[in-house]
Specification:
single chain; alpha+beta; Beta-lactamase; 2 domains; eight-stranded antiparallel β-barrel; 13 helices; disordered N terminus
């Protein structure tokens, strides 16, 4: 891939660009308007460094870095975008036939690494590690706050008693930073190589990301608080596999090219198309079985923006905020990073970029509503309690987590959480337990009963169980009082 490099000097900062030569469908005017908006946002929010990659026709259209002493080869920290790379490392072993996604994790890790009360019938499998569906909560405060470079063995020894499956593995996605640590441990056991060395050789190097690393690198622009001037020290994450990737914008554009071209980088095949197809869609539990079309797959998740489905991941690396998004239907995508801890600004940039990428595209026709009988709609209604929790287990187990309610309205349903807000979300039935919100083109919420009669709601609204179900599962803390 050839690039044209040029520098534009501005009064407040500088920009370094590399523009791809391809067959773009985005116009020069669209790109100019977008870069102008980002420059204004950077100046307003006092962001020392901002990076952007725009993909069009499956290849880099623009690689840009705003800021003093940064360019397209300056490394940035990518936070939880690292999870996609960790997933690709394990999927590389699957491609090589060295592990299987249905393998129980217990085949690779010692008994004291984690505990699972459902181990006999519902073991945690490698697939569950990637989907973040093993039933594990997130890291403890000690694990989050310890700023020391630890070996993987030392990190695993910190809080093994806290790694307990709170609900049956494979039931539902619940975001956690524990699973990537366990994934790294599986990789080390299966290969007898250090995780950081394996991912560098088997994932980063094949994508022409040879300077990228999960270990500290030279030349980072530094991370700052939201004010853009208070420095945040380099944070040594407990498990580097969940968020420690350091890489330049140019290197990350190669990663984006691989994702948008079914695993190919130029003429080379880096990953199989089937491996990458699994990244974006839930496979197990009611969500996977019922056909949730926007969920967390084996390393990325989906969301709806301007009527279009994007897939990707976000990142938070203590002074850096980032996100990548793929609009696969149009072979477009973006990657954006700022070196300030300013989530509000990142959301603003995300919205601006996604609008620019989709403004000239016709949104997909929403899936048509399916008429359901009043009795079937009524079976989905009732009070719901959260079926999963990431933090604050004490509040959840005491029965004080925020509840939800579902009501029947106008041949559909409405979801709301009375204790939290007055917002009511309309749900349009698509059949087979699948629903979408009015602006969603595909199923984003599913209702599904398990063999015992427990009715679950899963998807973009969260994980819940219907308290009026025929059977209320024992792991739900309020079920004993039903």
């Amino acid at each position: 891939m050839r690039y044209i490099l040029f520098i534009i000097a501005l009064t407040w900062t500088s920009q370094a660009f590399a523009v791809g030569k391809g067959s773009p469908t985005l116009s020069k005017r669209q790109i100019e308007d977008l870069t102008r908006a980002l420059t204004h946002a950077q100046r307003q929010a006092n962001v020392p460094a901002l990076g952007l990659v725009l993909m069009d026709a499956g290849r880099p259209l623009l690689i840009a870095a705003w800021g003093d002493d940064v360019d397209t080869d300056t490394p940035f920290r990518w936070g939880s975008i690292s999870k996609t790379f960790t997933a690709l490392a394990l999927l590389r072993l699957v491609e090589q036939g060295k592990v299987g996604l249905t393998d129980p994790v217990r085949e690779y890790l010692p008994e004291n690494t984690f505990s699972n009360p459902w181990a006999a019938s519902r073991p945690i499998r490698l697939l569950h590690l990637l989907e973040l569906s093993g039933g594990l909560g997130d890291l403890s405060g000690v694990e989050f706050n310890l700023n020391e470079p630890l070996s993987l063995a030392a990190a695993l020894a910190l809080n093994p008693a806290g790694r307990v499956s709170r609900w049956p593995p494979g039931l539902q996605h619940s975001y956690t930073n524990v699973n990537p640590g366990l994934t790294a441990a599986v990789i080390e056991q299966a290969t007898q190589r250090r995780f950081e060395d394996f991912v560098k050789a088997e994932v980063l190097a094949p994508m022409n990301m040879k300077a990228a690393s999960f270990l500290p690198v030279q030349g980072l622009p530094g991370g700052f608080k939201a004010d853009g001037s208070t420095e945040i020290p380099y944070w040594h994450m407990t498990f580097r596999a969940f968020g420690a990737l350091n890489a330049s914008l140019t290197e990350m554009s190669h990663f984006m090219s691989v994702l948008l071209n079914d695993g190919r980088l130029g003429a080379r095949s880096v990953f199989t198309a089937s491996t990458l197809a699994g990244l974006y869609r839930a496979h197990s539990g009611p969500a996977g079985e019922t056909g949730l079309e926007v969920g967390y797959g084996t390393g990325a998740y989906g969301w709806v923006s301007n009527g279009h489905v994007f897939h990707g991941h976000g990142g938070d690396a203590d002074g850096y905020r980032s996100r990548y998004g793929l609009l696969k239907s149009a072979a477009r995508g973006y990657l954006v990073v700022i070196n300030t801890d300013n989530p509000r600004l990142l959301r603003r940039l995300q919205k601006t970029i996604e609008q620019a990428l989709s403004a000239d595209l016709e949104p997909p026709t929403p899936a048509p509503a399916v008429a359901l009988s009043p009795a079937l709609l009524a079976s989905y209604a009732g009070p719901y309690y959260p079926a999963s929790v990431r933090f604050d287990f004490e509040r959840w187990t005491s029965g004080h987590a925020t509840r939800a309610h579902v009501e029947v309205v106008e041949q559909g349903l409405v979801f709301f959480r009375p204790e939290r807000s007055k917002r009511r979300v309309r749900l349009i039935p698509l059949g087979d337990g699948r629903f979408r919100r009015p602006t969603d083109p595909v199923a984003t919420v599913v209702f599904a009963a398990d063999a015992s009669g427990s009715l679950y709601l899963q998807g973009e609204l969260g994980n819940f169980v219907n308290l009026n179900s025929k059977h209320c599962p024992g792991f739900i803390p309020v079920c004993d009082s039903q």
